Amino acid sequence: MTVINAGTIILLQVLVSRIVRNFKPLPTMIGGLIVGGLGFVCLAFAVNAWIFVLGIAVFSIGEMTAHPKYYSYVGLVAPADRKAVYMGYAFLYGVIGSLVGSNLGAAMYESMLKPLVGQTGVRDTLRNFWLIFAALDVVAILGLLLYNRFFSADTPQANRAARRIMIGVYCLLVAAGMWFFYSAGVAAATVNYRTMVQAVIMLLIGAGGVFISLRHSAD
Fold it and tell me: What is the H or E stretch that residue 24 is in?
C-alpha cells in the first residue's frame, strides 16, 4: 500500500504533465486539489482493499496535477525584481508541512486508529479519519482562492495584511513546536528524540519568521 503513491507518480507524471502543461496554474491547482480530495473520499468509504488502492491512486493523480503548477503560479505572482526570493520561499511549505504533518498525522493515528486494532465495528471512525483530510483539502482550496483574490497583487496594503497573517502562522508554528516538544519529551513515557528535533526546527522557523516579519514591519 505504501508504494502505490510513488508508483502512480512514476507511471503517470509525464502523461499528466503533458495534459496540463498549457492550462492556467490556478485552475489546474484547484482541479488537482479537488481530485486529491476525491481520493480521500474513496479512502473514507473503502469497503475493500481495491477501493483503498483506487483512493491512493486518485489522490496521487491530484497531487501530480497540482504540484508542478504551484511553482508556475509563484513565478506569475512574484514581482519581477523578487522572483528568486519568492521561489526560495516557495519551498518553505514543504518543510513546514513535513514537520507538522508527520507529527500531527502520527498523533491522529495514536488517538483515533491505534486503539481500534483488533476490534470490529470501527468503520465510522475510519471514515471520519479520512474525511478530516478531505476537509483539510477543502480548506486548502478556499485558502488558495482567498490568496489569489486578496494577496496576489504586489501592493502595500496586500503586503501589510499578508505580513500580519504570516506572523500569526509563525506563532502557531511556535505553539506547535512547543506542544510536540513537550509531548515527545516531558510528557512521554519514552523520549522520542526524532520528534523533539523536529519540534526544535519548528520553533526555530517560527521564531525566525516572527522576527523577520516584525523587522520588516518596523522598516
Answer: none
On whether residue 37 sits in a domain, the answer given is: yes
Q: How far is CA 211 from the centre of its chain?
A: 24
Predicted TM-score (pTM) of the model is 0.86
Residue 137 inside a domain? The answer is yes
DSSP letter assigned to residue 2: T
Record the cell numbers describing residue 88, joined without a space.
526560495
Look at the chain and report how many structural domains it folds into: 1
Quote the CA–CA distance of 203 and 197 in Å, as a whole number. 10
Return the HEC string of 54-80. HHHHHHHHHHHHHHHHHHHHHHHHCCH
Domain membership of residue 201 (yes or no) is: no
* Residue 218 pLDDT grade (very low, low, confident, very high; cuts 50, 70, 90): low
CA angle, residues 152, 86, 81, in degrees to nearest 5 = 90
